[in-house]
Amino acid sequence: MLVKSTALVAAALLAVAGCSSSGGTSTSATSGGGQTSGQNATGQSSGQSSTTESASTSAAESSTSTSAGGGTAGGSVSPRGAASPECQAMSTILSGLTTVGLKAATGTVAQSDVDAIFTDEAVKAVPADAQSALAAVRDISGRLVGKNQQDASAMLGDWTQPFENFTNATMSVCS
Predict the structure, then answer these.
(1) Which residue from 8, 135, 130, 138 is spatially nearest to 69, judged by alpha carbons?
(2) What percentage of the chain reaches a pLDDT higher than 70?
(3) From its phi and psi, is residue 146 left (phi > 0), alpha (psi between -120 and 50) or beta?
(4) Is the whole-model pTM more than 0.90?
(5) Distances (CA, A) of 67 to 5, 37, 39, 73, 89
(6) What is the number of structural domains in the chain?
(7) Residue 112's domain spans which residues?
C-alpha cells in the first residue's frame, strides 16, 4: 500500500533531516544498539557517538502512528478509509513531499517539484480537518526552492515537524 511504504520512506527522511543539520557529518547506525561512527565531509572520523538509531526509531514510530489528536497542530483528523479520495490525494502529496525532502538534502528542490505536489485538484481533495497540516508543509516546502545544499539542509529541521504532522494526518485519514 502506498501509504505504508511512503510512511517508511518518511521515517527515513525524518532521520536524515535530523542528521542533515549537523554540518556535513554523516552517521551510520549499527544494529543491536551498538555505537555509531561518523565522518565529516573530509572523511575524518568525528569521534562522536551518535543517536541516529534512536532518532530513526523515533521517526519511524511517529510517522507510522497517529497521536490521539490526529498528529496535527490544529486538532483531530477524522478517518476516511484507505480507499477514500482524501486518502489517495494525501498519499500522493506525501509521496511528493518525501521526494522534496530528499532533494532538499542535496539542494536541488525546484519550483516545479513543489508545483507538481500541490496541484489544485490534490489540495481540494485534502479534507478540511487536515488543511492546517497541508498549509504548514506547503509553506516550508516552498521555502526550500532554489536553496543550495547547505542552506536547504539547514532548513530541514524546520521542515521536519510540518512533514511529520502531515504524515500523521495522512495516516489518520487513511485509517
Answers:
(1) 130
(2) 57
(3) left
(4) no
(5) 19, 33, 35, 11, 21
(6) 1
(7) 2-173
